[in-house]
Amino acid sequence: PGEVTLVGVSKRQPLERIVAAVEAGLDHLGENYVQEIRDKRAAVERAVSPERRAALHWHMVGGLQRNKARTAVELVDAVESVDREPLAVALDKRAGEAGRVLPVCIQVNLSEEPQKSGVAADALPALLEACEPLAHLRVEGLMTVPAADGGLDATRAAFARLRELRDTLRSAPGGSDLKELSMGMSSDFELAVAEGATRVRIGTAVFGARAS
Fold it and tell me: Does residue 208 sit in helix, strand or coil?
């Protein structure tokens, strides 16, 4: 259990539920939208104890527009959804201006669904290589969201494929820091952990159903 980080995805969750989870020991919060992080982070940090506030880490887990890079760098501790070189370059620039190194994961679209964010598996090595010279970006892992209607076997196969990609690309240009596997949500995190997830992004199973 100590090898898997629980990221509580608090999208559209009321403040009182988030505060309760943080006070109960949740150290990592994930959000899909920059605007929601902006609105929520200060309120959460005001509401929790100083000890819990110091332990909190915020993750951007949704698709990110390049023009939101500056705000993202100001608000989050990690971005898990880098999927193209222009976004990586923008984040690197803004992180440099902020005097920090930003940890990121590259999102991989293993299901090849056109409506889903993520780089194709065959384009992943080139994106990793493009990130290698970016001094203010540290590519620390890979992230994926499997097809929702693919069935358990297909979901598990996607998680296994992400692990294989990470292990293979550790020796490729830009892959030396690859460690994290961000995969698995409320409905499938057990399969993800079985296939080597180091982070699971859990919303409903932690906080309950989202507000409409």
Answer: coil
C-alpha to C-alpha distance for 92 and 28, rounded to whole angstroms? 23
Model pLDDT for residues 70-87, shown as the tens digit of each residue: 999 999 999 999 999 999
Tokens of 30: 């994930």
Paired with 202 in beta bridges are: 8
- Could you tell me the two tokens for 101? 């190194």
Burial bucket for residue 161 (CB in 10 Å: 0-12, 13-18, 19+): middle
Query: Which candidate, 32, 39, 33, 35, places its Cα nearest to that of 14?
Result: 39
Cα–Cα distances in Å, from 59 out to 38, 76, 142, 151?
12, 6, 14, 27
Angle formed at CA 162 by CA 161 and CA 163, multiple of 5 degrees: 90
pLDDT digit string, tens, across residues 8-66: 999 999 999 999 999 999 999 999 999 999 989 999 999 999 999 999 999 999 999 99
Query: H/E element holding 80?
Result: strand 78-82
d(CA 34, CA 82): 14
